[in-house]
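Help: read this over?
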Amino acid sequence: MNFLTHLHPAVVHFPIALLLLGSAVAFINLYGPSRVRARLDLLRTAWFLLGLGWLAALAAVLSGLLAQSALPPEAPYRSVLNWHIATGLGQLVLFGFLLYRGWLFYGAKASRQRAAKNNGAADLLDDPTAHLWVTLVLLLGIALVAATGWNGGILVYEWGVNVLR
C-alpha cells in the first residue's frame, strides 16, 4: 500500500464534518429565529465551514482518484466505486456552485446593486428570493455527502478495498 492509499481515508472525514456542519449553520441562518441570527455571526461561520469543507472535499476527491488507480479495473466492486466517485465529484461541483454564487453575490460589483435589487440583503443567505434554491442545493449536497460516505463504507466494510490485512 502506498501513501495515497493511506491519505484518502485520513482526509475523507473532514469534508463530511465541515460540509454537514456548514449546511446546518446555513439552515439556522435561513430559517432560525432572528434573535439567534442577530446574536451569532452565522453568515461568516456558514461560509467559512462550507469553504473549508469544499477544500477538504477537493483533497478527498483527488487522493481518492489517485488511490483508486491502483485497484484492478475488473473488480466486482467497480460499480459501487464508480457511484462513490460520481457522488464525490457531484458534491464538489454542487458546493462549489453554491460558494461561487455566494462569492458573486458578495462581490464588489454586486455590492453596489445589492440594496435595490435584493431587498437590502447583504449576503446570499439573507436574500429571501434565494431561500428556495439555496435550500434545495444544501439538501441535495447533504444527500450527496451521505451517499458518498455510504458507498465508501460499502467499499471498506463489505469489500475490504484498500484495507490493511
